[in-house]
Amino acid sequence: MLTTAVLGTGLLGLDLIERIQNSPTLTCGLVVGRTPGSRGLTQAAELGCTTATGGIDALLDTGHFDVVFDATNAFHHPEHSRKLADTGAVLVDLTPTSAGALIVPTVNGHQAATHRHIGLVSCGGQASIPILHALAQHYRPSYVEMVATAATASVGRASRLNLDEYVSTTQAAIGQFTGAEETKAILNISAARPAPPFRIAMTLVAADDVKQGPVGALVEAAEVAMQAVVPGYRVTSCTVTGTKVRVIVEVAATRSRIPVHAGNLEVISAAAIHAAEQHAATSIRKELAR
Prior knowledge:
By secondary structure, this protein is an alpha/beta fold.
């Protein structure tokens, strides 16, 4: 078992706690928040977790952890990374920075165990890159666009502070995973009622004409692979016109602590746990080999 710590007590942090407690290879050693007596810390304590306030310094004062999940914000992440660098902990970054090795479970998830600092791009990146990468392996893209729409109730204060970082990190990651010459990422925060599901609209412009049949097969395979990690992941539309491919995905949350419309939280939380469990599996294999 690897002992983990969670930095951040929003909905994302609480979902991480539940996932850790349900994992056969991870255990939750500490949850760190900012405000004593906050709702998130109270709920973490009710789940049986040891809690603390004081940020990264409180975590360092408590003891050693094998894995630290950073669910705070992109502005604080560099400090967290610097202070954890000499501890040997694996740092899994759920904020929209590009500081660590970027991991998307169904694309390069097997590489997670080789890195000590893991970045998860963004929720939009996690939802779009599996399909865009699959298409880019067969069709050379000149332009890729990703438009994410999230319900306002599922976008917390930290995410709102990091909108610029979200866009720049997602655009760069899409370029990295697809090789596209030009990329664009857009995030819409919708106040509609009832709250809309997390939706990703993707457009890929290929160098040559593409066909609906082969494209549909690639998209379906990517969808099936994603559903093994995120059960609420669903392709709702896939159309081809000349050199242009348009795919729309919706992600419904299936976890008990986040509302169904918060698929943006579900997709990145699932990716974080997947990365940590890759390290746990490697640790177990090493122990068995001794």
